[in-house]
């Protein structure tokens, strides 16, 4: 009664639906076919980095005859891989600020220099050994990018329903390279013949032949790394022209804020501990597997096959589980619990088999091989699932920084294990 008509401003709704504002600036996304080429180049580089890192462990008996390496020397050569993670903050900063191309080029350059340094055919053994150690260290400096950039690559280039699979492929090819070295080394480099019937002259000729075969493998690895470095130099974009998803285009935390967020997140630290301890131990253990299994009367070739199948089985199973996680979301925790439970049972079985003199359990080659392979399968296959769980837990922290932190922790555990083994071998040599 007596009220005037409402004005235009009074007829405006008090609550505006959220979709009105979000739809005003839609995020354009596109998936490019070249993502498979990017994934292939990165995976092949990770393969070669893993092969060079695990080159000496599977042929430690041959290396002892060819270069006079002791068990302590072999442990140190494997230790240069985790030692290469000391400047990991530099590579993570470079990846966060400049993209994957800059970090990958620097890492590949270290790989080329390392492969070239250890391949210089010098006759002086002391200098040659220093060059080999230097080459292994330079190859280890490529580890932070090769082992932690897989999730960053998958988020940058792949759609959400393909991300876990791409992460598994990019992350596990480094492990696959370590598995390939278990086969390439023992098959090309012959094991030494230590029978007493050999004369000094024939033994010297045999050592020269072993040294030539080791040199041949190192030349082949240098050529493969140089070709891949040229391919990355010619074509490897930092990121696609358009993001593949809304998540890839979203704003992430800064470098310093990301580190602070990770170190203050208790849930992330607990998951990182669950990742670092088993994966770090199995990585160091695989690097000296031939040395570990020698007291169990396992030959160099057989130890190589055990390491190969445990790693390859883990890679295949890991990709399958990642594909399953892509199709059914929300199952990451359950999958990891089952994997770690299987690894615990397999490692207990392997330990009891090795202690058969005390446990009186049957100890045959089939049981030893099966239990050892199962340990590697369950632990190695959990790596991509862990990475996906890390990314979901600490979003919006960039993927490269997150996985860089956890891979550093895993390599820290590996380094501590190998550091202990180095002094243990020295003590054994003195006694």
From TrEMBL:
<keyword id="KW-0812">Transmembrane</keyword>
<dbReference type="InterPro" id="IPR049604">
    <property type="entry name" value="SLC49A4-like"/>
</dbReference>
<feature type="transmembrane region" description="Helical">
    <location>
        <begin position="166"/>
        <end position="189"/>
    </location>
</feature>
<keyword id="KW-0458">Lysosome</keyword>
<feature type="transmembrane region" description="Helical">
    <location>
        <begin position="403"/>
        <end position="424"/>
    </location>
</feature>
<feature type="transmembrane region" description="Helical">
    <location>
        <begin position="366"/>
        <end position="391"/>
    </location>
</feature>
<comment type="function">
    <text>Mediates H(+)-dependent pyridoxine transport.</text>
</comment>
<dbReference type="Pfam" id="PF07690">
    <property type="entry name" value="MFS_1"/>
</dbReference>
<protein>
    <submittedName>
        <fullName>Solute carrier family 49 member 4</fullName>
    </submittedName>
</protein>
<keyword id="KW-1133">Transmembrane helix</keyword>
<feature type="transmembrane region" description="Helical">
    <location>
        <begin position="36"/>
        <end position="56"/>
    </location>
</feature>
<keyword id="KW-0813">Transport</keyword>
<feature type="transmembrane region" description="Helical">
    <location>
        <begin position="266"/>
        <end position="285"/>
    </location>
</feature>
<dbReference type="GO" id="GO:0005765">
    <property type="term" value="C:lysosomal membrane"/>
</dbReference>
<dbReference type="GO" id="GO:0022857">
    <property type="term" value="F:transmembrane transporter activity"/>
</dbReference>
<feature type="transmembrane region" description="Helical">
    <location>
        <begin position="216"/>
        <end position="236"/>
    </location>
</feature>
<feature type="transmembrane region" description="Helical">
    <location>
        <begin position="141"/>
        <end position="159"/>
    </location>
</feature>
<dbReference type="InterPro" id="IPR049680">
    <property type="entry name" value="FLVCR1-2_SLC49-like"/>
</dbReference>
<feature type="transmembrane region" description="Helical">
    <location>
        <begin position="76"/>
        <end position="95"/>
    </location>
</feature>
<feature type="transmembrane region" description="Helical">
    <location>
        <begin position="305"/>
        <end position="322"/>
    </location>
</feature>
<dbReference type="InterPro" id="IPR036259">
    <property type="entry name" value="MFS_trans_sf"/>
</dbReference>
<feature type="transmembrane region" description="Helical">
    <location>
        <begin position="102"/>
        <end position="121"/>
    </location>
</feature>
<dbReference type="InterPro" id="IPR011701">
    <property type="entry name" value="MFS"/>
</dbReference>
<comment type="similarity">
    <text>Belongs to the major facilitator superfamily.</text>
</comment>
<keyword id="KW-0472">Membrane</keyword>
<feature type="transmembrane region" description="Helical">
    <location>
        <begin position="334"/>
        <end position="360"/>
    </location>
</feature>
<keyword id="KW-0325">Glycoprotein</keyword>
């Amino acid at each position: 009664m007596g009220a005037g008509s409402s004005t235009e401003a009074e007829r405006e709704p008090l609550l505006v639906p959220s979709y009105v504002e979000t739809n005003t600036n839609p995020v354009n996304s596109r998936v490019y076919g070249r993502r498979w080429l990017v994934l292939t180049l990165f995976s092949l580089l990770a393969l070669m980095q893993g092969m060079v890192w695990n080159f000496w462990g599977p042929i430690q008996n041959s290396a002892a005859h060819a270069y006079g390496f002791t068990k302590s020397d072999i442990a140190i050569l494997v230790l240069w891989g985790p030692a290469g993670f000391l400047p990991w903050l530099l590579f993570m900063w470079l990846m966060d600020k400049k993209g994957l191309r800059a970090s990958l080029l620097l890492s590949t350059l270290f790989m080329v220099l390392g492969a070239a340094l250890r391949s210089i055919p010098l006759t002086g053994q002391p200098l040659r050994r220093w060059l080999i150690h230097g080459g292994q260290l330079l190859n280890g400096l490529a580890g932070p990018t090769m082992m932690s950039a897989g999730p960053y690559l998958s988020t940058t280039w792949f759609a959400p329903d393909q991300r876990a699979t791409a992460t598994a492929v990019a992350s596990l090819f480094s492990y696959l390279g370590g598995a390939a070295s278990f086969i390439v080394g023992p098959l090309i480099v012959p094991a030494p013949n230590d029978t007493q019937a050999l004369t000094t002259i024939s033994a010297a000729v045999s050592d020269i032949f072993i040294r030539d075969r080791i040199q041949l493998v190192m030349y082949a690895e240098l050529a493969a790394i140089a070709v891949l470095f040229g391919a990355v130099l010619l074509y490897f974009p930092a990121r696609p022209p358009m993001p593949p998803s809304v998540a890839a285009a979203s704003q992430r935390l800064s470098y310093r804020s990301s580190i602070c967020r990770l170190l203050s997140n208790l849930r992330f630290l607990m998951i990182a501990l669950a990742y670092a301890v088993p994966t770090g131990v199995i990585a160091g253990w695989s690097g000296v597997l031939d040395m570990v299994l020698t007291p169990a009367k396992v030959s160099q070739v057989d130890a190589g096959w055990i390491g190969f199948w445990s790693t390859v089985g883990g890679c295949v199973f890991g990709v399958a589980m990642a594909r399953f996680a892509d199709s059914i979301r929300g199952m990451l925790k359950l999958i990891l619990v089952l994997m770690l439970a299987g690894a615990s049972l397999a490692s207990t079985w392997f330990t009891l088999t090795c202690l058969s003199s005390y446990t009186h359990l049957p100890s045959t080659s089939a049981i030893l091989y099966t239990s050892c392979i199962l340990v590697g399968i369950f632990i190695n296959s959990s790596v991509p699932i862990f990475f996906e769980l890390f990314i979901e837990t600490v979003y919006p922290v960039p993927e490269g920084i997150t996985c860089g932190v956890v891979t550093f922790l895993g390599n820290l555990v590996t380094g501590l294990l190998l550091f202990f083994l180095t002094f243990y071998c020295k003590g054994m040599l003195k006694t």
